[in-house]
Amino acid sequence: MAGSARRTTETAFMELTEIEEFEVLAEAFRIMTGHMAPGKDAAAASGAATYEERREAFDAWMETNEECAAAIFMAIKRVTPKAERPR
């Protein structure tokens, strides 16, 4: 199949940077809890929880969801070639 889009074992698969992985986790945390992750800026008028409250909530969320998050990141790396990486 010359010229086909078939993947080969030589296909380079996507790797997320640490920052990108944190952004994904932070957005998932926000979707599931309504809180901004520690290290993210909440709007001043939003009545956001304190940093300490967000840190505690994020740590508890990570403890509960860490295995699922790791599996999702592994799946992304395995099935998404770099050429298909959204930017």
Description:
The chain is 52% helix and 0% strand. It is mainly alpha-helical and 87 residues long.
Q: Mind sketching the topology for me?
A:
Layout lengths: L17 H16 L17 H29 L8
Order of helices and strands: HH
Catalogue the unreliable spans: 1-9
Mean pLDDT: 79
Structural class: mainly alpha
- Counting DSSP E segments of at least 2 residues, the number of strands comes to 0
Please tally the helical runs, counting DSSP H or I stretches of 4 or more residues. 2
Name the overall outline: elongated
Question: In short, what is this structure?
Answer:
With about 90 residues, the chain is mostly helical.
Main attributes of the structure:
single chain, about 90 residues, elongated, disordered N terminus
